[in-house]
Input
Amino acid sequence: METTLQPELHQHLQDAKARIDAATAAEELRAVERDYIDKGGVVAGLLAAITTLPPEQRRDAGQGANILKGAVLKALGDRKAELEAMAIDAARSGHGFDPSLPGTSIRRGSLHPVTRVTRELEDIFSSMGYDILDGPEVEIDVYNFERLNIPGDHPARDMHDTFWCEVNGAERDSNMGLLLRTHTSCVQVRTMERLQPPFRVVVPGRVFRQETVDASHEHTFHQMEGLVVGEGLTVGHLIGTMKTFLREVFQKEIEVRLRPGYFPFVEPGFELDARCPFCATPGAGCRVCKQTGWVELCPCGMVHPAVLQMSGIDTEKYTGFAFGLGLSRLVMLRYEIDDIRHLMGGDTRFLSQF
Ligand SMILES: [Zn+2]
Output
């Protein structure tokens, strides 16, 4: 393109290039840009002078000025990139460091939605005086079933599609019935063994079921178990606790209802539903609650006396209540996620939204 420039413009370009090539700092390049490109610079002067030229020369003169402008800008850009690359090389090899250069950006991760909700619930329960406990994911039959009032022949076992562990080719009987825990309720037993009442604990954790995976079933999901044992506890305390908890989660008063539910380790047992917090008008129904106005929240109930006794707790003196929050379900409700498979799928396109 230079070859088409008139001699005067060609000289301008040569001068500019000489300065650009000699430049060793961004400030020198900025000075060239000021002299040639900015308002009042060489290019602007050339364009202004066009009006004084005879009409037949104006077109070429205009084109020439624009070619000069483009060529100077390109040379400035090239040299700037060169200087940056040199600075990075120098920094890498330890010969100086230019703090004015942009740093290498680091991609930041974020917390998994399950972790977020778990931590939030832990904070809420901590503020209500609960201890946060943990338990093993590989459990033995005794803790997962037997001492929760679910003996070997109990039909409730069929509802838990259990992953049994094989140890050295031997199954169940010879390895104490090693299994992947099917609920967090087994930590209830471990807690009663360790702690003297009164106590209140919650236990968040992963549980496993041999489920056929679909939008609402996963083989691995999350629960949060709650157990409170003390003197004089009643169903009223259970309901009060759940209402307090819901008020904290949704920051408003949430109506609850109890339906009878059967779980061998509680008596009486309930299914606790909450007024859907997402309906525009409470109870009106929406997509989240499938138009019913209620969302199933958790199975709960008063701890069965047999369960307390098996763990050595004096049932003359103490009663207790327990609840099993579906943590995965709460996460889905909170973020309106309609497919449980997203939670454990590990797809970063999903996870990076949190
Ligand atoms: Zn609703």
Remarks:
- The domain at 113-136+181-351 is CATH 3.30.930.10 (BirA Bifunctional Protein; domain 2).
